[in-house]
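Review form for a predicted model. The reviewer records the input and the model, then writes brief findings.
Reviewer: anonymous (R2)
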Amino acid sequence: MKAARPTAPNPSDQPPARRRKPAQSRARATADAIRDAFFQLLAEKPYDRISIRQVIGLAGVGIGSFYEYFSCKDAMAAVCIHLRVKAIAAAMRASIDAHRSEPLTDRVDALIDAQLAAPLAEPEHWAALFVVERKVSGIEAFRNMYAEFVQLWMEALSGGGDWPVQAALESTAFAAHAMTYSLVSQTLMTASRPVDPAALRRMVGNAVHGYLSIHAPLAAPPVPPRREPS
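Model under review:
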């Protein structure tokens, strides 16, 4: 994903020199309120039309409180995206631990479900977040995030003991994550009508399982397409 140079903040929005991390519960609540307000506004209007004043007005905090935690609007957006991505990674980690003893195809389905649960539950919100991610994420941060997800896929594929020794693990994990992430993010960003979450989940599952059936056929034979329950 190509990273864009952040737009310079308005001079009136320049922050003080110091920031502090939200260490205490009240401070964390303030930072959470700011991020939640931003997330709510992002579902209602384009990122470029959201101002810091609008965010703090909805959050019910002062401008000084904003600058205690964020240097500018782009920094706030980057933190918001980072925390939500980390929550997805934590869900994937829990899925790996919970399904380690299951066959490869079941582990893969569980991991896809964990990775897509949040975007498919709130597709409009995540469509906006994916667009903003392209504006505010630096290339190094993006590479680090991508590597973390590929590592999770590697652990899921190899964790059950049925991964073929002759099958390339890292490249397969990279492809599985790339298909999952790209199909969801690009579908949500380019959709001109509401997305059908079940149909999108089936598309991702079919793509990943189809790839695995070629690269690890003994452990991941072709599976029937997922159908919605009648």
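Findings: Residues 73-98 form the longest helix (26 residues).
Further findings: The chain has two domains: 19-71, 77-215.
Recommendation: see findings above.
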